[in-house]
Amino acid sequence: MTTIEAPLSDQVLTPSEAAELLEISEPELLAAAARRAIPGVCLGGVWRFSLAKITRQRNMGLQVHALAAAHL
Questions:
Q1: By three-state DSSP, how is residue 48 classified?
Q2: Residue 2 near residue 32, CB atoms below 8 Å
Q3: What range defines the domain where residue 16 resides?
Q4: Is residue 61 part of a domain?
Q5: How many CB atoms lie within 10 A of CB 69?
Q6: 24 assigned to some structural domain
């Protein structure tokens, strides 16, 4: 069986996976995503995150902890 991996730009993360990459809690991630401080999409009440965008945000050295905690 052949496994086909999606390009980095097409990979989608769950909230727990994105929170782990950003080293914040899932509630912090969801609050920041709802405020559009962290890029994500909510479809039918379910949040999903682009691996490429989350990785870019992490690598840019943005103050992710400050963004997430700003309105908790």
A1: strand
A2: no
A3: 10-69
A4: yes
A5: 14
A6: yes
Q: Which two tokens stand for residue 9?
A: 């730009």
Give the number of domains in the chain: 1
Per the listing, tokens 């691996």 go with: 51
HSE-CB of 19 using CA atoms within 13 angstroms = 16
CATH number assigned to the domain comprising residue 29: 1.10.1660
Contacts of 18 (CB under 8 A, 6+ apart): 29, 38, 40, 49, 54
Q: Taking the model in full, what pTM does it have?
A: 0.72
In a domain, 15, yes or no: yes
Give residue-wise pLDDT tens across range 18-52: 999 999 999 999 999 999 999 999 999 999 999 99
All residues at 6 or more sequence positions from 39 whose CB lies less than 8 Å from its CB, including other chains: 33, 49, 50, 53, 54, 57
Q: Which residue has the tokens 């309105």?
A: 71
